[in-house]
Write a structure and sequence with these properties.
The complex is a heterodimer of chains A (222) and B (292).
Chain A: H1 4-7, E1 11-13, H2 17-34, E2 38-47, H3 48-52, H4 58-66, H5 79-86, E3 89-95, E4 103-111, E5 116-125, E6 128-134, E7 137-141, E8 146-153, H6 158-168, E9 173-180, E10 186-193, H7 199-206, E11 211-217
Parallel strand pairs in A: 2-3
Antiparallel strand pairs in A: 2-4, 4-5, 5-6, 6-7, 8-10, 8-11, 9-10
Chain B: H1 6-15, H2 20-32, H3 36-55, H4 71-81, H5 88-105, E1 109-111, H6 121-131, H7 137-157, H8 162-165, H9 167-185, H10 190-203, H11 220-239, H12 248-260, H13 278-291
The chains are: A alpha+beta (222), B mainly alpha (292).
Bound molecules: iron/sulfur cluster (SF4).
Iron/sulfur cluster (SF4) binds next to helix 9 and helix 11 of chain B.
Chain lengths: 222, 292
């Protein structure tokens, strides 16, 4: 749902809320989900992102996001140069996806340890985004809330252990969805919360027996 | 609860004996679960960013295609040294709309209001009033609450993106927000605010989104001018007691309907309108050959 600062805002570097601001958010979402600093990024552009992306600075915006910038960062136009200084290698190609939103990017990012992650996300307009896939698993969340993504084994009672930790931590759940990865038998549980999650709450969830890993995206403040 | 009609805002204002903008502020406090101070602070931050978007304008910047840049300064110079047809306020409005629209096209910092393409309209009508000392910061913030409440209703009932409803949904919505903000600022009643919004939206009804080469440059920058000037005239009409014959919520619904029925060629796809004029096509070809 839109609040009045979605109407009057975001404060952003132009020229397009969907092709520039949204693209920055997609890049920074990929960085967050990787959980570390990316050193390599292969960026696929689909639909209107591929067609008019260059003129809107979509390419620079995505790289800016991967560098951890926010949509109002004045350095976005210089992101390619900054990436080079900081040792982030990147490349672009055009993609044709089936049934994807016209403003979609698929980012394959890698950190220095070789950890790799593939994120597919769409820019919905007004700077809002939606993550559609993580490592090939269909998901659906927007970053409009604080978002906890837990990958865990598909065993009975696991969800209640996770939600119990949230309850103990005083965190209210706004939305929760469960996505099954057909290949590995793993489950991705995406929990959107009203409150921010303190590191200790995240840590208590991470050490739950069947949990593989925990990723956390904190909603932008301004 | 969300703002879903102009009538609802007006009724709440009347029942609570409070101004239009305060109803919007209270809704924000309730919805986002923040204090009044926190909401106001965020609005002040937004306003400061708008002011900066005007002050940081530089005439030597050019957009990606090279089509946009320098016009804001031309208008400023002419306003100062020429013999403009417009009075002092309106010439500043025109110059400001151009400056902010150009800055956006040149990847500078702006406030999407409601979108980046239409980011010049609201600063164009408010910043000149603030700079000339005709409106203080508090009044401006109140006007911005009024504008955002109007935008929220339009987003809820219709749409605020060129891709969804054509330029009438971007520049049109911005113009309606600006018209309402000006009317509020000049002491208009919620009723008068509603008429200003209705008139502004009606005047730009059907406007297509047809950006050349798909870039937010031509015609976007100058459409910010028409959005702003239209807002000023509609606010003045409403303050003069002139009313919209069609009720405001019906006008908003109608804009949404026109947008839905608008051919896809006229909804930000750059497949129609100015984008497919011989000139528009040649710009696109040049860009493509440049980018390989
Ligand atoms: S023509 Fe399209 S892109 Fe340009 S301002 Fe209007 S709605 Fe926005």
């Amino acid at each position: 749902m839109l609040d009045i600062f979605d109407i009057l805002g975001p404060v952003m570097v132009g020229p397009s809320s969907s092709h520039t601001a949204g693209a920055v958010r997609i890049g920074s979402m990929a960085r967050t989900l990787l959980g570390s600093t990316p050193v390599e990024a292969d960026i696929g552009l689909h639909g209107s992102f591929a067609e008019t992306g260059q003129g809107h600075g979509t390419d620079r915006a995505l790289v800016a996001g991967l560098l951890g910038m926010r949509p109002d960062d004045m350095h976005i136009p210089r992101s390619f140069e900054i990436a080079e200084e900081r040792g982030l290698r990147f490349s672009f190609r055009k993609l044709q996806l089936r049934d994807a939103h016209p403003n979609t990017a698929v980012l394959t990012v890698k950190d220095a340890e070789g950890k790799e992650l593939v994120v597919q996300a769409a820019s919905l307009g007004g700077g809002r985004i939606r993550v559609d896939k993580i490592n090939g698993v269909d998901v659906n969340f927007t970053g409009a809330y604080n978002t906890l993504i837990v990958r865990h084994k598909d065993v009975a009672g696991e969800l209640s252990r996770i939600t119990n930790e949230l309850a103990v931590g005083g965190v209210n759940i706004a939305n929760m969805s469960v996505f099954r990865d057909r290949r590995g038998g793993d489950v991705l549980t995406v929990i959107e919360t009203d409150q921010k999650l303190k590191p200790d709450v995240r840590e208590r969830i991470r050490i739950i027996y069947a949990v593989n890993d925990v990723t956390y995206y904190e909603k932008e403040d301004a | 609860m969300a703002l879903d009609s102009m009538r609802e805002i007006c009724e709440k204002a009347e029942q609570g004996q409070k101004p239009f903008w305060r109803v919007v502020l209270e809704t924000d406090i309730e919805e986002r679960e923040v204090t009044e101070e926190a909401s106001m602070e965020k609005m002040r931050f937004t306003w400061k960013a708008m002011l900066e978007s005007v002050e940081n304008y530089r005439e030597d910047r050019r957009s990606v295609s090279g089509l946009v840049g320098g016009d804001g300064q031309k208008m400023r110079d002419y306003a100062k040294n020429g013999t403009p047809l417009c009075g002092e306020y309106l010439r500043e409005v025109i110059a400001t709309a151009l400056c902010v629209g150009e800055s956006n096209a040149c990847m500078c910092k702006i406030v999407a209001a409601p979108t980046a393409g239409a980011c010049g309209v609201i600063p164009a009508v408010l910043v000149p009033l603030y700079k000339s000392g005709n409106a203080g910061e508090e009044e401006i913030l109140q006007a911005l609450y009024a504008a955002s409440g109007i935008g929220a209703v339009i987003a809820y009932r219709a749409c605020i993106a060129g891709a969804a409803g054509g330029c009438q949904a971007e520049i049109g919505a911005a113009s309606a927000m600006a018209a309402g903000a000006l009317t509020a600022l000049h002491g208009g009643t919620p009723e008068q605010i509603s008429h200003a919004v209705a008139m502004a939206l009606k005047n730009l009804m059907g406007l297509v989104c047809d950006p050349i080469a798909g870039l937010v440059e031509v015609p976007c920058v100058k459409r910010n001018v028409i959005g702003a000037v239209n807002a000023v005239s509609c606010a003045d009409m409403a303050l003069a007691g002139i009313t919209s014959r069609v009720p405001v919520d019906q006008v908003i619904d109608c804009m949404g309907e026109v947008g839905r029925r608008m051919p896809v060629e006229f909804r930000e796809t750059a497949l129609g309108g100015l984008a497919t004029t011989p000139f528009g096509k040649s710009v696109k070809e040049q860009l493509e050959s440049k980018n390989g």
